[in-house]
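Entry, Tuesday afternoon. Goal for today is a structural model of the target with zinc ion bound, before we commit to ordering more compound. Inputs were pasted exactly as handed over by J.K., no edits. I checked the ligand SMILES twice against the vendor sheet because last time a stereocentre got dropped in transcription.
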Amino acid sequence: MFEIYRECTFSASHQLRNYNGKCERLHGHNWRVRIHVTGEKLDKSGMLLDFHELDAIMKDAIDAFDHRHLNEVEPFLNDSPSSELLAKVLFEEVANRLPKDKQLNVKCCDVWENDASRARYYPG
Ligand SMILES: [Zn+2]
């Protein structure tokens, strides 16, 4: 198996729901997102997936959230926009955009609120 990852950043505000603490107040993060992609087959260039192609896929998935208030964007109109749920949403959005002919899988999605705090989603 081969595995690559790519990172992107974006800026957005959020307010946690059903939470007592300062994170229920409106605040923002420069979020860092890392997507790990795995597969068995390399293309004729010896690559699993061109990093630039993965970058474009990630930016397309992130576009709905960049410079937004996450609480005002689906699926966070009702769900709490936590790092954990954001990682799950971006995992699924990137997985849906991967080229179907390359037998690639998203292994996990990491979302950092800051250098000390990271959430990871992967299918159990
Ligand atoms: Zn926060």
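DSSP finds two helices and five strands in the chain.
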